[in-house]
Design a protein that fits this description.
- With about 150 residues, this protein is an alpha+beta fold.
- The protein has 2 helices and 10 strands; from the N terminus they run αββαββββββββ.
- The longest helix has 17 residues.
- The radius of gyration is 22 Å and the shape is elongated.
- The protein starts with a helix and ends with a strand.
Length: about 150
C-alpha cells in the first residue's frame, strides 16, 4: 500500500462512523482507532491525624457514620459496566442531563456501549445534577462516577 492510499484511507476513516480499523496484508500492518484513552486519575486519601484515645473513637464511630452520610458530598450515578459512554441519544441531539437540572430516579442519564450493545444508564438517585464527570465517548470503567447528584 502506498503513502497516497494510506492518506486517503485515513481521511475516509476520519469522516466515517467506524471506531477502529485494522489492516494486515503480508508484512504490512495498519491500525487506526478513534477510541479515547481513559484518563482516570486517583487521588491519595487525605491523612487525618486523630488525637483522641482509641476508646473514645470507637464509641463515637456509629454517630460519625450517620453524620457523614447526612453531611456527605454529592452522591454519584456510577457505571455498571465497562464501555464507551454517550451523553446524548444521537449526535446533534441535546444531552440526557445537564448540570443544574433535576433528575428523577429511573431517568436515563447516558448510554454505555459495550460489545456493540447499547445500555441505557438510569439514575439511581433523585436530585439536582451538580457535575458530569465524564465526556462524551469516554471509555468508562465499572463503578466510575458518571454524574454527581445532590439528593433532595
Amino acid at each position: 500500500m502506498d503513502l497516497q492510499a494510506i492518506s486517503s484511507l485515513m481521511d475516509q476513516f476520519e469522516d466515517s462512523d467506524i471506531r477502529e480499523l485494522k489492516i494486515d496484508e503480508g508484512d504490512f500492518h495498519f491500525y487506526l482507532s478513534k477510541n479515547k484513552i481513559n484518563k482516570m486519575q486517583s487521588k491519595p486519601a487525605p491523612v487525618v491525624e486523630n488525637k483522641e484515645p482509641a476508646s473514645k473513637t470507637l464509641a463515637k464511630s456509629e454517630d460519625t457514620e450517620v453524620e457523614s452520610t447526612s453531611d456527605a458530598k454529592d452522591a454519584a450515578v456510577k457505571a455498571p459496566i465497562v464501555g464507551i459512554v454517550y451523553l446524548q441519544a444521537k449526535p446533534g441531539q441535546p444531552a440526557f442531563v445537564k448540570v443544574g437540572e433535576h433528575v428523577e430516579k429511573g431517568q436515563t442519564v447516558c448510554i454505555i456501549e459495550a460489545m456493540k450493545m447499547m445500555t441505557e444508564i438510569k439514575s439511581t438517585l433523585t436530585g439536582t445534577v451538580t457535575a458530569i464527570n465524564v465526556e462524551n465517548e469516554d471509555l468508562v470503567e465499572v463503578d466510575q462516577p458518571l454524574i454527581s447528584v445532590k439528593e433532595d
